[in-house]
């Protein structure tokens, strides 16, 4: 079972901060997950929410703030995170695009352009995940060799999706496949349940706990 640090090591450090990713990458895990949005000047930045309110008590939308302003607040750029991940030969990066947003398809275009520029668009360590079926289709067209995961929200009718929440997977264990991405699993008993069910990829806020619960290490 591949352990993926959800937004870095966010149970111990500020989510998606430099230190959260540094500490996660130091662990012997499969990889890290990050959310990406576009700044007002079109740069890919690692941030989950549409606004800065929850993290920085600032009501502005991320899409209205420049990359330089976001960096001053401590937001990592996608380039900076890529550099950190590539310092390791065997760490994977799961890139989640956040939709809906005013830039639309430009978000996927910039992801592919950045990866192509860095000669990573066909690298098996790079993965794209999203709740947006449209976003997944865009990546499939622009980067057909890239591994994609369509995430399913709990309220959505069942469709073709590889990414399931823990609650959905427990309610529909028959839907688990050899390629299921399970989010976000933090309790030791749930981690053990996921391993018994043969979950391929497990996103967690507590990668250290997930490591301690694995029986097949």
From TrEMBL:
The gene is glpQ1. It is an enzyme of class 3 (hydrolase). This is Putative glycerophosphoryl diester phosphodiesterase 1. Its EC number is 3.1.4.46. GO terms for molecular function: glycerophosphodiester phosphodiesterase activity. The lineage of its organism: Bacteria, Bacillati, Actinomycetota, Actinomycetes, Mycobacteriales. It holds the Pfam family GDPD. One of its GO terms (biological process) is lipid metabolic process. Keywords: Hydrolase. It comes from Corynebacterium gerontici. InterPro entries: GP_PDE_dom, PLC-like_Pdiesterase_TIM-brl. Residues 1-217 form the GP-PDE domain. It comes from the Bacteria.
